[in-house]
Specification:
This protein is α+β, with helices and mostly antiparallel strands. Helix content is 30%, strand content 23%. The chain binds uridine-diphosphate-N-acetylglucosamine and phosphoenolpyruvate. Cell wall formation. Adds enolpyruvyl to UDP-N-acetylglucosamine.
Length: 455
């Protein structure tokens, strides 16, 4: 069995999926109401932040996704006591944190990118940290050079061995002046989680400012940290001697909300996403409207629907916040196959994020991927050497096919494509979707999708 398939099955098993393959009968619009809970891209980091506290932390609105289970396993391997007082809550007690055996950490190797964020908190508490092989979506190289350079700037010593990376801090960690070569989300979080307990002041330039990072800063402030967010992507962190636990309700998952919005559009449906908020989705909502989608912002969610008029093509450049998030483009591309004319999606964040389009092409979509990107005179985001572009010409009718999920967002787009297609599709490797979409099987059922597990 190849490692991708093994990973997908592991993810699915962690959240109790019956099998790793779905049979989908397309053609029915998705209609109904679903709820999104806390963001995968905040909850997993908030769990790591609990390691910094001297008392227990309570996190609310935690989704049942496999990435949460992976981080829970890693925290438990380090002696954190994790319980769930109520559904959707995690109580994290870090009072007996200890070094885990490498074998326990390695059991989580290749499953998620979060282990890299354990470094700062563990170096503060224990003077050492191990990083196993990292996982996460395979959408390019995903180097960790910014993380390691930042940790070295704080005074960490990095030892690279065949089992992974071992870090020590022989003289403790001290505040540093750091400028990121690119506003990386993970590297910004690395600096925050390390600087809050480092001696002295840290200045971080070219920081990422995604809403999930602002929510992490709010958590750290509740714990006793002093963090100032300045204009122009500058963050100052004044190190403190100790931090306490926090009580926090996680920010909603805007990536999941945007995915269901695109599902409504592509299937000519009508989905109300409870828990979705306008403010964190403004950039997405503008593009959704330009494509011809309709939405109503409600008190406790957003209703996304196809208004019955033809969809229009758009040009989109993915970017760091407040730009159009790279995790939003895959489900949107499915909707763009229904638009009348030629759309272009410039992927500027990752170097290989159009792998999912192969399956859409097999289903009849007219998509051309330009591996070196394409020049465009009307762009907003500066051109990056790693970028690619997809040119989508529609409208096309998709037909059923046998497809294999390559990654989280690509997998969700395959599901939507199969739901819009004429006939029957088989989608294998669906376990990966449980990394970031809570109860997606139940939600599809609620929305009236016609599908079943294959044996
Ligand atoms: C768990 C999580 O929160 N994942 C999100 C996070 O990923 P993640 O934090 O891994 O993404 P980054 O923002 O770090 O990556 C952005 C770019 O920086 C590059 N880079 C990053 C670190 C480094 O040390 N060296 C380097 O070159 C990456 O290869 C990529 O080209 O932000 C991405 C961008 O919004 C989202 O798509 C992911 O959903
Ligand atoms: C790329 C993603 O996540 P990760 O960084 O966890 O692989 C994603 O959520 O689309």
């Amino acid at each position: 069995m190849n490692s991708l398939l093994r990973d997908a099955q592991e993810h699915g098993k962690r959240v109790g999926l019956k099998s790793d393959k779905l049979i989908v009968n397309g053609g029915k619009p998705l209609k109904g109401t679903i709820t999104v809970r806390g963001a995968k891209n905040l909850v997993t980091k908030a769990m790591v932040a609990s390691l910094l506290g001297e008392t227990e932390s309570l996190l609310r609105d935690v989704p049942e996704i496999s990435d949460v289970n992976i981080v829970r396993g890693l925290l438990e391997a380090h002696g954190v006591l994790v319980t769930s007082p109520e559904t959707g809550e995690l109580l994290l007690d870090p009072r007996n944190v200890e070094s885990a055996h490498f074998a326990e950490i390695d059991a989580h190797a290749g499953s998620s990118r979060i282990p890299i964020l354990f470094c700062g908190p563990l170096l503060h508490r224990l003077g050492e940290a191990f990083i196993p092989d990292l996982g996460g979506c395979r959408i390019g190289d995903r180097p960790i050079d910014f993380h390691l350079d930042a940790l070295r700037a704080f005074g960490a010593v990095v030892h690279k061995g065949y089992e992974g990376i071992h870090l020590t801090a022989p003289s403790g960690l001290s505040g540093a002046n750091i400028e990121l070569p690119y506003p990386s989300v993970g590297a910004t979080e690395q600096v925050l989680l390390t600087a809050v307990r480092a001696k002295g002041v840290t200045e971080l330039k070219n920081a990422a400012i995604e809403p999930e990072i602002m929510d992490l800063i709010a958590i750290l402030q509740k714990m006793g940290a002093i963090i100032t967010v300045e204009p122009n992507r500058v963050i100052f962190i004044e190190g403190v001697d100790s931090l306490r636990g926090y009580t926090h309700t996680a920010i909603f998952d805007r990536n999941e909300a945007a995915s269901w919005a695109s599902a409504a559009l592509a299937t000519e449906g009508d989905i109300t996403v409870k828990g979705a908020r306008q403010q964190e989705l403004m950039t997405f909502l503008n593009i959704f409207r330009k494509v011809g989608g309709a939405f109503d912002v409600e008190e406790d969610g957003i209703r996304f629907y196809h208004p019955g008029t033809p969809l229009k093509p758009v040009v989109v450049e993915t970017d760091v916040h407040p730009g159009f998030m790279t995790d939003w483009q895959q489900p949107l591309v499915v909707a763009l196959t229904k638009a009348e004319g030629t759309s272009v999606v410039h992927e500027t964040v990752y170097e290989n994020r159009f792998g999912f389009t192969e399956a859409l092409i097999e289903m009849g979509a007219n998509i051309e991927v330009h591996k070196q990107g394409i020049e465009s005179i009307t762009r907003r985001v500066p051109r990056r050497p790693l970028e690619q572009a997809a040119v989508i010409t529609g409208p096309t009718k998709l037909h059923g096919a046998d497809v294999h999920v390559p990654d989280l967002r690509g997998g969700f787009s395959h599901l939507i494509a199969a739901l819009t297609a004429e006939g029957r599709s088989t989608i294998s490797n669906v376990g990966i979707i449980s990394r970031g979409y809570e109860h997606f099987i139940d939600k599809l059922n609620l929305l009236g999708a016609d599908f079943d597990f294959a044996s």
